[in-house]
Structures
1.
Amino acid sequence: MGLTVAEKLINAALVDGEMKKGNRIGIRMSQTLTHDLTGVMTYLEFEAMGLKRVKTDLSVSYIDHNILQADFKNPDDHRFLMDITNKFGIICTKPASGICHQLHLERFAKPGTSIIGSDSHTVNAGGVGALGIGAGGLDVAMAMAGEPFYIKMPEITKVVLTGELPPLVSAKNVILEILRRISVKGGINCILEYTGPGVATLNVTERATICNMGAETGATTSVFPSDEITRQWFKAQGREQDWVAILPDEDAVYDSVIEINMSELDSLIALPHQPDNVVPVREVAGMAIDQVMFGGCTNSSLQDVLSIAKILDGKTVHSNVDAALYCGSRQVMLESMRRGVIDNLMCSGVRIMEMFCGACNGMGFAPPTNGISLRTGPRNFIGRCGTESANVYLVSPEVAAASAIRGRITDPRDLGLASLRYEIPARFIIDESMFLKPSEQYDDKPIRRGPNIRPLPEFEALGEDISGEVLIKVEDDITTDHIVPAGANFMPIRCNTPEIAKYVFKVIDESFAERAKKVGSGIVIAGHNYGQGSSREQAALAPRYLGVKAVIAKSFARIHLANLVNFGIIPLIFTDESDFAAFEQGDVISLDTALLQEGTPYIVRNRSKNLEIKVGSPLSQDELDIVKVGGRLNWIKIRNS
Ligand code: SF4
């Protein structure tokens, strides 16, 4: 039986287990990436392991999230990252060199490699035929230490693309259409693999856009084949030697199929506050807007900037609209400048920002109170933009540009524009002037740490009898943004656990942290897809710091589930979903961890209601053992003692 592209990538990296659906498999990750928001904690974790150098083929640290330097905290983090990466043999990019996923695609990702990143959109690398997987920082630290990364062998969904994108309906609409069809839960435990004749009509950054937002379906990753189009991209990046062809075998077998005729795609828009809340643009056309953000790791490529510039050419941004552009990298910025595009955009009234994630997660450019913001990024969770009352809509760069001109949500096809043709340059401008290459040898210079970088908290083993109060009961699709907030006020304190813990669940319940601290031992009850969205491990670490011992949910998002294990919180799943109704905030629950075994049903006691509820564990025995000893760092210490 032949192999799919995804199976070929996994097979090449497989070091433990058999590639059978649902089996637990260990993969050696050849590359790692981190960014400043997750990286500080990741490198503290790596440091705690006592190794002198990373064991990967390549590790890169990007500084692209916490860029605003309003006080000492963010620049202290940047300095820490530059010091510690030099010591451990990791490339570091200086602040605002570009968004990690765009930069990694341009300079480092290779077809056939396996890349683990402490950011859920590491899947972006699927655009060049690499296996990109997002994970919590501790899993990335483990990969840097040469440890395998474990996942359940996912199902492989064949996404057959036919036809060609219509004029002014760009690649973002492909992934919005998939989200419309399968929802933010539809990709869980799946890899989305793109095939079909339509693939040859898409260039690498269009493919990366589609892979990037595959993260929003919950998919483990997304992948395109590496073909002649990919080779041209590597040649233009001066890296043709990094290219290899990776195509699916003709007799490859897939678990399910999604068909998309791109010629029939409409201009689509994701309404607040979930990326799968997708409707045709015409359903909301005419709604007045306050703000447009061009950029984010989904749509900050050269093609995106050129499309925006062509639509705005000779026109100005509407007087009611504040519009800003974040190019994805210095390469994108320099190429745009070479073409005179940045001048034109400035003359059109677009604010030109630095090359970083920017407003996507609220690091500046927050909308006004109750503001309507159109964004080309991948996420629109409530409060993520920094303004809780704002409504964020996700669109393609073309819809964003047309709407910026009219001051109202607009389908670009209503502006009477010609098709936007784009050819990748024969040779991109290569700029690595802000890449810091590490010392050849382990460097014993002291690492400079600011006062906001606090040591990792230590947790005790869970003990056999756990009793705790239900601190909060939440519905489906709770994101890590709900658990630990984004925004310029909160992101700089992510490496200070006692501080960030004060804001756990703030978006839903301001009193959570206070109550949790008072109770000392707590349980969270949740609906489906708990922990959706970003990979931030603080969404497990900070609740654990506040005494949360278990989360009982209808289902979990993959990365968050792994983070709960890493920080010693027991994840349990309702056997019968109707039992969700049997819990209320304030109920006292007891668990006997000694009885927790892989594959064995397990009873949770609701002592307040005198009920016994059957639940299951989604974990393997190894993972259960890690949770019981208080998390992965404790487990490593025990293993190495
Ligand atoms: Fe940056 Fe937004 Fe992409 Fe996260 S989702 S990597 S914050 S651009």
2.
Amino acid sequence: MKPLEIAKNVYWVGAIDWNIRDFHGYSTYQGTTYNAFLIKDQKTVLIDTVKRDFFSEWMEQIREVIDPKKIDWVISNHTEMDHSGSLPWLMHVIGSEKPVYCSKMGAQNLARHFSAGLNLRPVNEGEEMKLEQRTLTFLETRMLHWPDSMFTYLKEDQILFSSDAFGQHYAGMERFDDQIGEAIMPHAKKYFANILLLYAPLVLKLVEKVTRMGLKIRMICPDHGIMWRKDPGKIIQAYVEWSQQKPGKKALVIYDSMWHSTQTMAEAIVEALAQEGLDARPMHLRTIHRSDVMTEVLDAGAILVGSPTLNNGLFPNVADFLCYLKGLKPQNKIGAAFGSYGWSGEAVKLINQDLEEMKFRIVDPGLKIQYVPDPKGLEACHVLGKKVAQALAF
Ligand code: FEO
């Protein structure tokens, strides 16, 4: 991939990872990119690096813009190794004495990742760095999504280098929002739901802070996916809406099944929810990846979880999903549990415990049916669906 001049003397120098399909548990069906940026001025600055596997091809790309030895300063916005993995090798090429600017936590975390002696220079919130014609400013964005995360702002060009925030796991030939259009939004939504949802309150505070500072943003350059130049306000607004987590008129029936009984219950519940006017969807956990289910959770008002009882516990896929869901802490949901069982029937109780822990509003004690649902059992599924729909009345 060739470098790309995105503003005068500002270059995208990233790597496209076409083949990655699992990004630590997140399904990346369309790959991803690792974006890094080079700014040429009196001082030449590199913002972020790429995953280690792409180091050689990335260096070739940088060489098309400048002799890497002429890079004066490196900025590390985030320690996670998809952005810092090439750092020690880069420093070996450009000179290990050159400074690496990062947040205070970045300095601690980079030192814990790489034993090679990096010349780490922690920066403060709002600190400015003069390159000659241009000025860089740093914004601490702690826990968005690691303790070390920060943004770098290029004042004269009004470009925000936003690290993971506003990114998408998408590999394509497009580099900008205007080249792909609306098709990028589902990727941005999935990325938010699976990476940033837990930190939604901090996203809202950050947007408030940026608004208060009157920061003018002409372009947002995240470390993954396309850059937002046509309408950076669009992704900021989407982040505000997703962070608010207003419950939608949508109900998900998330389940797994052994001998189709829990599935039959799920389908009957979906039918009842739909009859009540909700956008209702069954989501079978052995068919749909947990990260895709999570994307749908983002704007759903009700989450019903179904599991058979296996060995006195939850079905493993359901336990996996609940563990993932709990970690991301979705807010403002109505919840309910259901499932078929043979003799002990603990699954409904265990699901309810998890829903309570997540502070879901539980509107029914839960429905369990022994072995196979009969017409009376199916009627009970309808009643449960209706009850949830009525609790979610708009
Ligand atoms: Fe893309 Fe948190 O790394």
